[in-house]
Amino acid sequence: MKIPSRNRLLLACVGVMLSALPALAHHSFAAEYDSKELVTVSGVITKVEWTNPHIYFYIDAKDASGAIVNWAVEGYPPNTLKRTGFTRDDLKVGETVTITAYKAKDSSSRLAGREVTFPDGSKKFAGPAGGAAPPTDAK
Amino acid sequence: MTTFSVRCFAITACSVSLTLAATIPRTADGRPNLSGVWQGGGVSLYGEPGAGTRPAPPPPVNPPPKREPIPYQGWAEAKSKTFTATDDPTLRCLLAGVPRITSMPMPFEIIQTPKEVVIAYESFHAFRIIPINDKLQHPNDLVPTWMGDSVARWDGDTLVVDVTGFNDKTWLSGTGSFHTEDLHVVERFQLNSDDTITYTATVTDPKVLTKPWITGALLRRPPNTRVEEYECIENNQDVPHMAK
Fold this sequence. Notes:
The structure holds two protein chains of two kinds.
Chain A: H1 5-19, H2 29-32, E1 33-49, E2 56-62, E3 68-74, H3 78-83, E4 96-104, E5 110-117, E6 123-125
Parallel strand pairs in A: 3-5
Antiparallel strand pairs in A: 1-2, 1-4, 2-3, 4-5, 5-6
Chain B: H1 3-22, E1 36-38, H2 43-46, H3 74-80, E2 108-112, E3 116-121, E4 127-131, E5 149-155, E6 158-164, E7 184-191, E8 197-204, E9 213-219, H4 238-243
Antiparallel strand pairs in B: 1-2, 2-3, 3-4, 5-6, 6-7, 7-8, 8-9
């Protein structure tokens, strides 16, 4: 197949970027979360752990039966979030947020956070897209 | 091609090469100046994949080698497949080793002097103090370690780092990429005119590989970034979660 030179450049660029796109800093996304189980959860933030190797925040949300479930949401490391414009002050206990997140493979109430929608409607990424993780070199 | 056009091509190629050589920053002793903060990948460097949060950088002038599968011997290939992500040393916040540390999605700073090069990594608080030593002579009292022992020399404008003295507890790359204490890594750092570093690592370990494994990364300067604290073990909940 003949690829126009401009497209070849683009492909080379994309190739380099893909090879350099690790997911989480120190563990495999796929080993813990299901990239096919992207869910949307709305709830009140009950606790924030702005910690390494990954942040956690916890939200109370009602399940289908109306019972409150406290979800633990894992995100990028603090330094990564800060550098992408997601600061510690963005997550406030008591505020209601809507998140998209990937469910844990063990069916527990843990989630890998993806996009957070804040009360003012703004959105920021808390963690990686599950499908973006390279298959083996996710470190 | 006529003689004239060959000469034109040669002159053009030569002038391009001279231009490239002339446009990299240099230290007072004339070496390429590698000092500064660099990063091999991650969203803080490239933005979210497909989200358009950051414009894609231009293609590099000197791309790193394409990453090939590790050329394991048959028995070693079979053994590597017995590991899972739960066995990953970095899951427990242990040092990532070389060359894997270079591709971590976190920045590191190179501090270069005429006598030594120091690399301070954010990931796992790793550091390497690398003497410039034209004979690439390692100390004779080495005990195997996670990051090995590094010495360097200049090969023209390329910094060549020779690393040996590894333990057998790190992984080279992805899941199961084990090695033995015979691991030997030769790294090459080439500063380019587009303010990138082409990083190449040649990995040998005759006990498990059939031939040298060549890997690499393109290092860019992450904007407005300094190396900061990363106390990985602080709230590492992933070990018990993954062990379930």
